[in-house]
Design a protein that fits this description.
Order of helices and strands: HHEEEEEEEEEEEEHEHHEHEEEHEEH
Shape: globular
Bound molecules: zinc ion
Largest sheet: 9 strands, antiparallel
Radius of gyration: 21 Å
Length: 341
Amino acid sequence: MAVAFMLLECSNASMFAQNQTVDLALPTDNDALFRGDGPGFYQVIERDYKGVKSTPWEGGQYGFVRDPIETPEGIVYTRFHEGIDIRPLQRDARGEPLDQVRAIADGKVAHANLVAGYSNYGKYIVIEHRWDGSSYYSLYAHLSAIVVHPGQTVRRGEAIAVMGYTGAGLNQARAHVHLELNLMLSHQFESWYDAFHKNDPNHHGIYNGVNLAGLDIGRLYLALRKNPSLPIPEFIAEEETFYKVTLPKSRHFELPKLYPWMLTGAAGARTPSWEVSFARSGLPLKIEPSSRRVTQPELSYVKKSSIDYSYLTQDKIAGHGENAHLTEVGQILMKLLIYPD
Ligand SMILES: [Zn+2]
């Protein structure tokens, strides 16, 4: 009896999770990424730079690829694109995209937004994946139809939706699926959001984009092709630290519990604070004990630049050169990590 029970437990566990390897499929039939064909893979954006209009495919990539401005140091792309925009391969006679969108890995549907107007993502789905004990969240946006529901278990490659162009600023010509792979910042997100964004209701629970930090999924696909056993922590370790923030010690600080691999140094150290390293995108990379005493989140390092930090960090950090500090936006966002402290 006990043996039978244990076997059942094991088969249940293998249904959803503890995969050691991150076996990612592309979400549509478009695999031009693997042939190095950027224009064939990425959907273009519409750019108007100083009155000059263009449609660069590069704007569909992950990273700071949008909203260029001219600075004394040259052109700086100020807007971060948290995912990748994949172009359709099939359209009907009226030009409607037909591409099936599929789960990129085994997981569980965590959230489905069926009301396009609730988000600039339009209709979108979030799927939770478990790899090595941590949860990661793939997000598929601008869908026209959704064929799965929250709570449903899905397999890698299983159909979940049809590509579309729902959401702000899109038209039929620019139809695409926007794909992200995220870490979650905090399960206290909803109460934090209500405290700081009273006038703008949150329709997405803890799956609001503000609470999800996207990693470089384009680079991840290519890295996994080279090394199929590459674990996510190793992949993230290659990201450059752009800034560090010291947080007062708090029992509500969830990141080290959600992503224990981020923790370095003496885990049980009785130090008064934590220092969190971030990529320029805002993706958390590393957590270290710190002896610095702080009562609220404080910027403790930023990679030196003569460009205004607000252009480089989407206004999370202000100042330039040696003079840098968290903006109010940055300060509020950092409070999410230890909310409600
Ligand atoms: Zn996008």
